[in-house]
Amino acid sequence: MSDSNTVPRLAGHALVEALIAQGVDTCFGVPGESYLAVLDGLHQHRNRIRFVACRQEGGASFMADAQGKLSGRPGICFVTRGPGASNAAIGVHSAFQDSTPMIVFVGQVASDQRDREAFQEVDYRQMFGPGTLGMAKWAAEVQSADRLPEYVARAFHTSMQGRPGPVVLALPEDMLTTPTAAPVLPRVEPALAWPAPGALRDLRVLLMQAQRPILIAGGSGWTVASVEALQRFAENWQLPVTCGLRFQDTFDNRHPLYAGDAGIGINPALARRIREADLVLAIGVRLGEMTTSGYTLLQVPRPTQKLVHLHAGPEELGRVYAADLMLQSSLACAGKALETLAAPPTLPWADWTAAARADYLANQQVVPVEPMDLASVMRTVQRLAPADTVYTNGAGNFSGWLHRYVQYPGLQHHGRTQLACTSGAMGYGFPAAVAAALLYPQRTVVNVAGDGDFLMTGQELATAKASGARRLVSIVVDNGSYGTIRMHQEREYPGRVCGSDLHNPDFVMLARAYGWQAERVDQSAQFESAFARALASGEPTLLHLKLDTDVITSRTTLGTIRAAAMARQAQG
The whole model's pTM is what? Predict the structure, then answer.
């Protein structure tokens, strides 16, 4: 920044200058009267930083989460007090569970009105307050204009340090309009932690004793160099590699060591392999409920397998599992540290590793389901889309086809190519796709959404069009149902459906009303030409795919689930 940053200016302007100093060139939000001074600062510096006005704060916070995932630095979201912050909470929660760096700035009532339950007043330190099961790593309110740059720098540090996550800063309206000469602080870089040398030696001993090892990789904070080193470590030791839930782009899915993803709809063969392993290396992943299939792949609290857990956040180590070896390390350092472990000339698990890859490849084979076969649709998407395409999705059974049949390149090739939330938040995928299209206009972005999922945040069609997003294709899979809930209903209460049927609009007409191109696709054979037209146009395009409600997952149908449940009930 120039010396002009020491000249008194509104605190709202100082905040914008502080963001620019941190390298922020885009932020997302919904404007509010509680932070008009910030909006004025964004206008003042509009040639250096862009404010993307969204249509709902939930969409804005999802876009900021996507920004954090793609850049590795905090995504920035601005919302107004009360209702605005409440709407944005879904993105904060998702960023916390995904370990995504993000900062949400919330306009607050004026200081002289605090604690009176003023218009839209909320105490955001309590609402988002940190804790082991909170929504943010840190939540604070800035009382002094002169300390605002200090708070912003600390927010960046906190968001990126250790296990990344969201930070919430409340900004009283009168504080933002107070002049301050406080200078902005330099760009923040997180301090890096390396695993202890003694722990690395212990890890090598465990590897030398193993017969059936497996590596589970994932988490947030990897760099290109670290992922490349992780791949060399896996190659040196010939380890089968799986990725945690919705972190499939951590390791190149085309690599002969890749064995599939551990998450929702896990390949049963892979699940058996993890249970039968004698050593599990969990590198970067939290080992949460979904990655462990409800804490069944590894028993709680003491797994039958020997467990090595490496994570960036020391508070995560030992939280659920009593590991045999725990290593605290920044993921930017993890791969480089692991590749220093020398492997012996021969390893006893070559057949084990080859079989794991064979299981993955066998899981790619399917029996087509017509008239709309989503497996062939996903394969067509992968075949036609550029190699650096960013894929996004929210929550719903539709995502199983995407995760199963799209092969993600490791992030060392094209950066992040998968944007999906581990929190199971419906509506994430479409705003994430809009953000990706705006942040990386040279890349193609493909969003896959369910009908219920899409309508949670579909109003961001307007944001995409207004902001000039291009190379964006949204594939809406419409089965007229909240499919995941319907699946659980049929499993637990067969034939007793309540609340999971949906009445949907004509998605083609809806998209066109927002200025998008759109087509309806009723048969698998029609999809390739429709998708090719969407890619060739370069314009935002929605493809509406109609799917029978009975086709509930990539593995089974509602009919088989219902029959199994009824047979189970008949047996008492």
Answer: 0.95
